[in-house]
């Protein structure tokens, strides 16, 4: 069977795309720090260029921005420390009381429906004392013991944590030259439409990233102030963590909601904590969905919530952590490509007959 020139070109590009995704799938365990660093370099590169334009040496600009970013990530991780140090003792005190209350009130109520259960409060209390009454030294010893058992896993985490800043630094330093080398591989006959396509992708991703950062900062302030006005002791760490974690769609908000709900139940030991969290986080979702996102992010990347969930699950299943990292950028590129294909279809003889 003889193939036309266009068919051979289409098959060639399809084969290259298949090889690319196969390599991505096979190398996904080692690509994580490089993919994350590339995404961060894409987001931080405009700031580096602005500093360079103002006379700051590129080396100093790259180091400054990377240091600020790493300090911000470290501060976000350290927000978990006061949450755990506050909630673990409360859990230790409250769990036996909750078990005793369930035995006193819940068991007789269930017995009316023929359900006969009984909680062993003594065993629950012993379990809580064993695992939640440890001090920092005991927790550290347990962590070190686990690290020795799963040494390769811990080594991989530490290696990625060290490798990612190094890769990010070199990408920030060589971003322009890397872009030029990649651009030189694009066939000259398709450079004009490719440039237009990449410009659309850059505009969409840039709008998404910059707008989402503003949304995160505003939500961090909102949740912190709202939880503080409601009387939460952990208002600042829980509020800031929730606001910044919403960058991870749905997962970040869910983690923040879980931490706030746990803090409210343990601190107030009444329905007030649950209702306060429900009202604050419900209003936060309304604020994000109907005010902040439309004004600061626009239509984001043009994907419905269900499509975003599907993209995260599908890419995560295929490529693991790397897939989660590239799910939304890849979906954005797919949206731009889909819009262009839609316009081509409307102008094609196939549509016009």
UniProtKB/TrEMBL annotation:
<feature type="transmembrane region" description="Helical">
    <location>
        <begin position="307"/>
        <end position="336"/>
    </location>
</feature>
<feature type="transmembrane region" description="Helical">
    <location>
        <begin position="269"/>
        <end position="287"/>
    </location>
</feature>
<protein>
    <submittedName>
        <fullName>Putative PurR-regulated permease PerM</fullName>
    </submittedName>
</protein>
<feature type="transmembrane region" description="Helical">
    <location>
        <begin position="63"/>
        <end position="84"/>
    </location>
</feature>
<feature type="transmembrane region" description="Helical">
    <location>
        <begin position="149"/>
        <end position="172"/>
    </location>
</feature>
<feature type="transmembrane region" description="Helical">
    <location>
        <begin position="238"/>
        <end position="262"/>
    </location>
</feature>
<feature type="transmembrane region" description="Helical">
    <location>
        <begin position="12"/>
        <end position="42"/>
    </location>
</feature>
<keyword id="KW-0812">Transmembrane</keyword>
<dbReference type="GO" id="GO:0016020">
    <property type="term" value="C:membrane"/>
</dbReference>
<dbReference type="GO" id="GO:0055085">
    <property type="term" value="P:transmembrane transport"/>
</dbReference>
<keyword id="KW-0472">Membrane</keyword>
<dbReference type="Pfam" id="PF01594">
    <property type="entry name" value="AI-2E_transport"/>
</dbReference>
<keyword id="KW-1133">Transmembrane helix</keyword>
<feature type="transmembrane region" description="Helical">
    <location>
        <begin position="213"/>
        <end position="232"/>
    </location>
</feature>
<comment type="similarity">
    <text>Belongs to the autoinducer-2 exporter (AI-2E) (TC 2.A.86) family.</text>
</comment>
<dbReference type="InterPro" id="IPR002549">
    <property type="entry name" value="AI-2E-like"/>
</dbReference>
